[in-house]
Amino acid sequence: MGKDSHIEWTHHTFNPWWGCAKVSPGCTHCYAETLTNRFGGAVWGTKGERRFFGERHWNEPLRWDLEARRAGRRYRVFCASMADIFEQRRDLDAERCRLWALIEETDSLDWLLLTKRPKEAKDLVPWGRRWPINVWLGTTVENQEWADRRLPHLLALPARIRFLSCEPLLGPLDLRRHVKKRGIHWIIAGGESGTGARPMHPDWVRVLRDYAAKERVAFHFKQWGNFVPLAKKTGMLPDFTFPNGVGMIAGNKAVNGRILDGKTYNGFPV
Asked: Which of 73-82, 115-124, 137-146, 224-233 has the lowest mean pLDDT?
């Protein structure tokens, strides 16, 4: 978290607070909750008190913005990896207002606002129909049910860049029923990692990759996660087998990597 994030698709990570409440199957094995529990403090769930931060923390994006300006570059900032900024809680309103002002002030940073609550975004941002051009708005779509629920709300908002995080990818996705040409600019896909991780069928990823190629949408394959397809003719037995016979081997996400059909996909929107 913070400067020089280890997340493959961002430069930095900024959290205006820590804590959230689970809303869908993608939240079941929440990595942020697991990480937070190591430090103690009940910041999760509808009754949990969110953890807030001081001036030093809030000044970090100002330094990143200055660095980007001096380097003649743009830095991507993922906001928020440990929370959901569109959680409907009145005790978060003051921090949200501070975040909107910070985004407007740091115009050499592209702010990647990823949420599982795109329905709430319209009423919680102050920008109406004229969003800052450095805001990228994304939503998590882990399966078809939640794509059907969330995509219409995402597509109705006038962010310059709209993106999807299909991670953890828990089922096949057909985006054609919602997404018209140029409605989505970026698709991130990845399997689940950590305790209790659920396998991702390789065909689910291929469908998204092929859709992105056809529609000229940037595609980024982040990781296989804890399960990788069983290579043919290895003599190994699968740890998990999908109904159509595709076998998966359990292992470490770092070892499993992020190569799909012999290629690494590092697409970013222009």
From this structure: 224-233
Q: Please tell me the predicted confidence (pLDDT) of residue 58.
A: 98
DSSP code for 197? P
pTM greater than 0.90 (yes/no): yes
Of 166, 146, 180, the C-alpha closest to 221 is 166
Q: How far is CA 186 from CA 45, 90, 148, 232, in A?
A: 30, 31, 18, 32
Quick check: is 91 in a domain? yes
**How many whole angstroms separate alpha carbon 190 and alpha carbon 142?**
10
Residue 117 lies in a domain: yes
Tell me the β-bridge partners of 164.
139, 187
- For the chain, the maximum distance between any two Cα atoms, rounded to a whole number of angstroms, is 59
pLDDT tens-digit readout, 208-260: 999 999 999 999 999 999 999 998 757 789 999 999 999 999 999 999 999 99
269 in a domain, yes or no? no
Given the DSSP bridges, would you call strands 247-250 and 240-241 parallel, antiparallel or unpaired?
antiparallel
Count the domains in the chain.
1
Residue 2, in any domain of the structure:
no
